[in-house]
From TrEMBL:
Coiled coil: none annotated. The chain crosses the membrane at residues 280-302. Residues 319-341 are annotated as: Disordered. Keywords: Membrane, Transmembrane, Transmembrane helix. Residues 325-334 have a biased composition (Pro residues). This is PROTEIN putative (DUF247)-RELATED-RELATED. The keyword Transmembrane applies.
């Protein structure tokens, strides 16, 4: 365990701090420029496997015995920068191991969101058989998708027909990472089920490649593995027997989405917008049709009025001058009932 801890600290420093490699051989398979480029990514992936976890306490003790001792927070940030590059995280609580540290970095709490709360409306009840529809179906029901302000998996909200989701980068390590995080939450009762609930929610949204394309167009999914079909297959390959955490903010979002999508008016309005307001040309065509219809109705009305009341037609004409009288009405011409030769 001590040897593994020393190796982890050394490879993390070489990959993140870019320490000098002078005291290593140029052809070293790990501690060299070649190792930084080709070996470090695989070590990073193995460090997130549940069976390879090393207690953070070991790393803290080893770092405190160095010539320049480092505190626990500095070691945690060093490990996190190796596992999650370019990730800015504030001060974190103590973690069990690297996987727990990585999991908590995915779930930072937004203070503004914590003050607002989940925003559950009274009167909404959760039905066990009520499942969120796919992204394309929700979009057809009038729900818009928007990327959240942060990348936290907690930052999922629904307000005014807009579902906000955090940005997720899908690459070749996403499946293994989610599987290990889900297994960790199942084995640790008091850890929470935020990642499991998030994966379960995304599985309901992604039913086919069209759902992936829709979320990708909104900037929510960043596809780094190729086609939209590959992303869909990735989420479908994850376990299906996952339940969302009860009484959570994500469950409240699911209830609001279901209540909104089940209103017929929202779906009718969405169909109207998708059919006639897709682009500027469709809007101009609709306006032209409405103007043409209005002119046709006006022409029809002006054609019918003289047939029923010719005097009323004269009242619609402009005045002919002071003292001018309208022309007298001619009596109808009598017709004979006898046949003519």
């Amino acid at each position: 365990m001590i040897l593994d801890g020393c190796f982890m600290l050394e490879i993390i420093r070489l990959a993140t701090v870019h320490s000098s490699l002078d005291h290593y051989a140029a052809n070293d398979p790990v501690f060299s420029s070649h190792g930084r480029l080709y070996v470090a990514p695989y070590i990073r992936r193995d460090m997130l496997l549940l069976e390879n976890q090393l207690p953070m306490l070991v790393l803290y003790k080893l770092a405190s015995l160095e010539r320049e001792p480092q505190g626990e927070e500095a070691v945690s940030m060093l490990v996190l920068n190796f596992c999650y590059p370019n990730k800015s995280v504030s001060k974190m609580d103590k973690c069990l191991h690297v996987l727990d540290l990585y999991r908590k970095s995915l779930l930072p709490e937004d203070p503004a969101r914590k003050m607002r709360g989940p925003g559950v409306k009274s009167g909404l009840q959760n039905d066990e058989n009520d499942i969120v529809r796919s992204a394309t179906e929700l979009n057809e029901a009038g729900i818009q998708f928007k990327k959240a302000r942060t990348k936290s998996l907690r930052d999922i909200s629904f307000r005014g027909g807009v579902l906000e989701l955090p940005v997720i980068v899908v690459d070749d390590a996403t499946e293994a990472t989610f599987l290990n995080l889900i297994a960790f939450e199942r084995l640790h009762v008091d850890s929470g089920k935020e990642v499991t609930s998030y994966v379960s929610f995304m599985q309901t949204l992604i039913a086919n490649e069209r759902d992936v394309a829709l979320l990708h167009s909104r900037g929510i999914i960043q596809n780094a593995i190729g086609s939209d079909t590959a992303v869909c297959e990735l989420f479908n390959s994850l376990p299906k027997d996952m339940a969302m955490e009860p009484n959570s903010s994500l469950e409240a979002v699911q209830m609001q989405v279901n209540a909104y999508s089940q209103k017929p008016w929202n779906e009718w309005r969405a169909n109207l917008v998708h059919t006639y307001f897709r682009n500027a040309w469709a809007i101009l065509a609709l306006i032209a049709v409405l103007i043409f219809f209005a002119l046709t109705c006006a022409r029809t009305v002006y054609s019918i009025i003289p047939y029923y009341d010719p005097i009323q037609l004269t009242s619609l004409l402009p005045p002919m001058g002071s003292g001018a009288r309208p022309p007298p009405r001619r009596p109808p011409t009598p017709t004979s009932n006898f046949p003519t030769n």
